[in-house]
Write a structure and sequence with these properties.
The chain has 213 residues and is of the alpha+beta class. It is built from 6 helices and 12 strands. This is DUF4433 domain-containing protein.
Amino acid sequence: MNIEQFIEQRGIESVVHFTTNRGSLGIFACNALKSRQRLNADEQLKHIFQPNAKYRDKDLAWLDYANLSISRINMNFFNTCSGSWHREKDFFWCIFDFAPEIMLHDNVQFTTTNNIYTGNLRSPGLEGLQRAFQQKTHQYSSYYAERTEGFPENETTCNQAEILYPGEVSTRYLQRIYVRCDEHSDELAGQMAATAHPAVEVLVRPELFEKIR
């Protein structure tokens, strides 16, 4: 079996990344989802960059990788972001949906849980991807995630499992974007027009945000 066959077997159709409307503007402006390191180095983007996480000191070695999830966003991290330091700011959230073929690209790494957790196993290739779907995943200390009856086949065992994509992901692999309401859809359409970014389908899917604070 190879990665492409595994993707088909599991019914994986999306690799997702959540960001704010400020982050979306940066993505459209440079036609890529960039790693934090590259965002900070870009003179244009660093003025509009608003990180999802305040600090990532524990994974400094991975700052030149973009973080994504398979099929479903990292809800724990999303709620931390939306429920704390971004709560009072004039932002809205959107989900960028990339084609799963990006998992076949060179030097992509797969993690079993959050990249900073002590129980995390990180590796490239089919083995790394398969581990993200193992029956039971150690997160840290006495915490584990486990696949139970009815668990979606296309979701990782731990919702905090990550795809670490080197450098930047081109928006030519961007399939669609999800937002909560028509107003947000209109703003993203305006951003794409303002940056001369090729039009990408924006879908209003409020149910994807129901469990988000």
